[in-house]
Amino acid sequence: MTTVTEAPPPSPPGRRAGRRRSGEDRPRRAVDHGAWFLVLPALIPILVLSAGPLLYGILLAFTDAQSGRTEPTQWIGALNFRDLLHDTLFWESFRIGLVWAVGVTVPQFLLALGLALLLNQDLRLRWLARALAIIPWAMPEVVVGIMWRLVYSPDAGILNETLRDLGMGGGRDWLSGLATALPAVILVGVWAGMPQTTVALLAGLQNTPRELHEAAAVDGAGAWRRFRTVTWPALRPIALAITALNLIWNFNSFALVYVLTSGGPGGRTRLPMLFAYEEAFRYGQFGYAAAMGCVMVAVISIALAVFLAGRLRGGDDT
Amino acid sequence: MRISRAARVGQYTALLAYLVFLAFPFLWLVSTAFKPPRELGSLHPTWIPKDPTLGNFRQAFDEQPLLHAAFNSLIAALGAAVVAVLIATPMAYVVARRRTRLAKAVTGWVVVSQAFPFVLLIIPLFLVLKNLRLINSVPGLVLVYVVWALPFALWMLAGYVRAVPPELEEAAAVDGAGRVRTLVSVTAPLLAPGIVATGLFAFITAWNEFFFALVLLKTPEKQTLPVVLTHFIGAEGVADLGPLAAAAFLATLPSLVVFAIIQRRITGGMLTGAVKS
């Protein structure tokens, strides 16, 4: 794996041109023309089915598009955005989305870091932990949601039974309680996303040179000191990248919470994506839902830009 | 490095806690799937079914068109994987071998595409596919899945291409092999395991996908497995737990098997991408 992550040695200029059958003297740019027909099969679908719809989606946000309506769609300028600004339910879901994204990402990172550090040691049950850590990753999100509904189930669930055994009450309906629903779905989010984070951090750990650790140990540095001065600096770029991605993924997540609570009770777990989905495909408000999507993209882009700026200032991350 | 006894005990305790946390929901799913209705109704559920039964599986197949849904999922996932890999491989090669503006644009697009809230994509796609009469059709879904799988496929494949030393290609060229022959007889065989891993990964993500399938597939006979699974949960959120668990357990098996096979390769490919970005 380590060989993969190393940059290929830069080949001296002009050497590649020798691969061509015709004319060694041709300028190298000529080679690049041939590249287009390799690129187009992927580029066309990308433009037609990804970039195109994205732009179309942004345009729709400025219209009153609705599903199943007979009158033609009108251009209404920024009206959707003005309505959105006053839509307290949307901002409430936005707030829930942020709480959910941070609430999942932070514990997930800390737990994954712990597990990655453990898996990086010579421990006996390591293979089992590795194998188990794959399960949440391989499972369809819908199944993860269903599975945890079984765990949380008020009477037949194992969580309440365990709590009863420990003498801590039980019989709670975790997913329907106004206070417990969001923490309950956050726990599922943490569980479901831990493997990816663990694997990324583990690879980061395996790329840190062992000699540095040993040198630090010889110098009498304790475990915490070694972590702070050797492990963490090497791990930082991957840790930052995976955290940024996790925040974005979690903010945009849908399936898990849709299956667990459908946004309930009383909208306590209604993530922005659930809100926009309902607006678009239950109430048919395409234009308005597209405007929500735009606001989400804008916020994410700003966050991403701030993060990238910080990362660049952070120095060498390659 | 010497590690003290106390530290060792701490490590194993922590590892055990992780094992329990990771395993218990899945074990509970399996246990529930094999429980007869009497035990499911019990107020004091047990880990191991006293009277294990396959009745839940039979009931699950009776209640919902699971086989049909699995077939739809298979077609959607297979179609997406094959097409995505076929069109992504040449582009990944170009992106990995040439430091052009295109390569940079692709990398940028891969990052940005991770940030899309799908709702902004699905509304226009829904309208476009409706006009093409591809709503409620598995081929329409394949089209969406291909584009959706492309960023990651490109990312992984570019990593695998970079792992093939250019010197090998150059050596072949020096020996008089043409460009096409070099690609076919030198590069492709070295790339094959990476291509298979990428395809399997695209397969799994499509097999597991829910949101696009939920929006685009309207009638039960067209729906994929994840969508059909949600039908076990009633309108009021009331679910028949046994068949629900049985069906969910079955839907996971293919993913688990494939994932176990390609796990190492995925992490390698993913990280190459992550580190290069």
Automatic annotation (TrEMBL), chain B:
Enumerate the transmembrane spans: 12-34, 74-96, 108-129, 141-161, 182-207, 244-262
Compartments annotated for it: namely:
Cell membrane
What the entry lists under CDD domains is as follows: TM_PBP2 (cd06261)
Single GO biological process annotation from the record: transmembrane transport
What is the protein's membrane topology class? Multi-pass membrane protein
Q: ABC transmembrane type-1 domain: from which residue to which, for each copy?
A: 70-262
Name the source's superkingdom.
Answer: Bacteria
Its primary localisation, in coarse terms, equals membrane
Keywords noted in UniProt: Cell membrane, Membrane, Transmembrane, Transmembrane helix, Transport
Q: For this UniProt entry, what's an example GO CC term?
A: plasma membrane
PROSITE patterns attached to this UniProt entry: ABC_TM1
Q: InterPro entries under this entry?
A: BP-dep_ABC_trans_perm, MetI-like, MetI-like_sf
Q: Which family does it belong to?
A: Belongs to the binding-protein-dependent transport system permease family.
* Record protein name field: Sugar ABC transporter permease
Query: What is the scientific name of the source organism?
Result: Streptomyces hawaiiensis
